[in-house]
Specification:
Length: about 230
């Protein structure tokens, strides 16, 4: 068991499921940038970790200079690592890495509606189906018609939770653009397009609950978590 979410990120060095997930997420981010209209591309990342998915993709994408992003993450050491990566990529004027609470609407003020919303490693930590549905419905505050959503959800005990995510996203006015399972077969990664009109961002509204102790990491993905 990792002692915190910073240490949890070490699993990227050893766990095929996380490495494969990152590869698909990076591909979906790249695909989303490819189809973005000319001009500024706004991106938000919810519970961003150290931002390796977005930052890794931008390091090698022709639209990188058009991206204005806000990454929101509670663990200060992950934010520090992300900020260093932003600095060294020369993207400090465009990418904000906020050390804050991604569950509250106020953290997104001024950064939404986004063209691309990244919610990776989150959907397995929002409680039951009602908690999941709450988060997915509240994505209307971060989105506008045509926004692209990139998300992940793993299986636990053979239960394909990504099926539930896909069903609820359909009910929340998202259409599926692409869905893949990792080669390990137990982690779903989706790319959805928002078809709704979006809603004005409220002040200080809780958008979802990140369950568990925010300072503690979860088990290795391959064993339990279904991130
Ligand atoms: C499973 S990790 C996923 C990190 C990253 N998105 C990825 O896919 O690599 C979950 C992250 O959520 C962060 N987190 C937990 N509660 C949070 C909150 N209320 N606000 C912002 N980040 C939070 C944790 O610190 C952790 O880095």
């Amino acid at each position: 068991m990792p002692k915190d979410w910073f240490e949890w990120h070490d699993f990227y060095n050893t766990e095929p499921v996380l490495q494969q997930r990152l590869q698909i997420v990076g591909q979906y981010i790249s695909d989303s940038l490819d189809v973005s209209l000319p001009g500024i591309i706004r991106v938000v990342s919810v519970c961003a970790g150290d931002g390796r998915d977005l930052l890794g993709t931008l390091s090698n994408h022709p639209r990188a200079k058009d991206v204005y992003a806000r990454l929101i993450e509670l663990n200060p050491k992950l934010v520090e690592r992300g900020r260093l990566a932003i600095e060294s990529a020369g993207l400090a004027k465009q990418i904000e890495f906020i050390n804050g609470d991604a569950t509250t609407s106020s953290s997104y003020a001024g950064a939404v509606p986004a063209d691309i919303v990244i919610v990776c490693g989150v959907l397995g930590h929002v409680g039951d189906e009602a908690g999941l549905n709450r988060l997915l419905r509240n994505l209307s505050f971060l989105s506008k018609k045509g926004s692209l959503l990139i998300w992940t959800r793993g299986d636990t005990n053979g239960i394909r939770h990504s099926d539930t995510v896909r069903k609820l996203l359909g009910e929340a006015e998202f259409e599926e653009v692409s869905f893949k399972l990792t080669a390990t077969g137990d982690m779903g990664v989706g790319l959805h397009r928002y078809l709704g009109e979006g809603s004005a961002l409220p002040e200080n509204q809780q958008l979802f609950v990140f369950s568990g102790d925010p300072n503690r990491g979860s088990q290795p993905v391959s064993q339990t978590s279904g991130e």
